[in-house]
Please model this.
Amino acid sequence: MVLKILSVVGARPNFMKIAAICEAINVVNSVGASERIHHVLVHTGQHYDTNMSDSFFNDLEIPKPDLCLGVGSGTHSVQTARIMERFESVVLNEQPHVVLVVGDVNSTAACALVAKKTWCRGNEGSTGFIPKLAHVEAGLRSFDRTMPEEINRIVTDSISDYLFTTEESANQNLLREGIPENRIFFVGNVMIDTLLRHRSKAQESTILQDLQLADGREVKPYAILTLHRPGNVDDKQVLAPMLNAFLYVSRHLPVVFPAHPRTLKRIQDEDLGDYFVDHFVQGPEPWDSRVRIRLIPPLGYLDFLRLLSEARVALTDSGGIQEEATIFGVPCITLRDNTERPVTVECGTNVLVGSDPEKIIREFDRLSLSGKKSNRSPLYWDGNAAKRIIKVLIDDCFPEG
Ligand code: UD1
Model:
């Protein structure tokens, strides 16, 4: 029997996760004479700009998606509904044994719902079935239900058959929510599989030279900033004071800011351009004046990894960057009041400051004085999470081995 897995990607943070899954499936299929897993990759098109999507497929050598649903942007309900409508016919046509979703974006929850609501007729003579649902990165909880991702996580986990977790807190959250223990698999972090696999390739990136942050082999100190959560960028009363705090940081260290399209739009709409210098449009002029935030377009995976790995400090509201900074031992100031990834705080690299400018400045001052780096890795963040996931799925499908 061949196990048919239909995997879903939609938005930027999904791509590095699915890259590890694709790789693990290739390894399994390369052993023995015949294919054990038939893998179909679906891209919903939630993210569609080249630098938010295609560049990741290239950098990470992810196979071209078998199907693209082209849903694009919209309100949460419109986007979710569009994905569901288009994904339903994919499931009906493909009849997968397992639908595999990753992370917590709208594509994750939308496709999870479809998977568990679609009755596949099966081949002639066989009985019909509902596909099994596998959620990679299950159990994370910020306990903040105003975050769209938290709703996506709760919905997806509540109907999943296989819940693959990255840290112990996730196991505890799921058990507390009444998920049977035999559905929970503590496998580690597929995003870190991809980081470890691409770490040395990222060394070849010229991004530090392109940004005048390196002279030969010597790297100058700098900070990296990312910001895109609606709670931080949608309201000018929140965003502008944060930008003042980043200006303070920029007087001590150049602040490089690869801006998400959502954030860029807010900056333009709210007329906040004076806080920034556009590195590639206005030129790299005088880096040393350090009075404004250095705006650059969203980066590809390898460039971003290189930039993060050498940063003196990261300021971010992303979930994944908290994890990547943990592995690089880069101090991370998280611009949120909570994190669904508490292990990144326990390992000593991550501090939560929310959007309060005074806290941002205080934490930056403390970190730049201490220059502290930590290299503690959470359990199972060892490059083998995807292999463990595929083994669980195969063992369940081929119990005889
Ligand atoms: C989504 C995820 C978020 C994740 C983030 C990473 C949800 C609920 N949120 O947020 O968890 O951290 O991706 O980037 O799924 N846009 C473009 N080009 C693109 C994609 C988006 O210009 O390729 C613009 C559009 O104006 C769009 C806006 O960005 O309306 C927001 O995109 P959307 O997919 O709704 O959510 P993100 O903020 O990207």
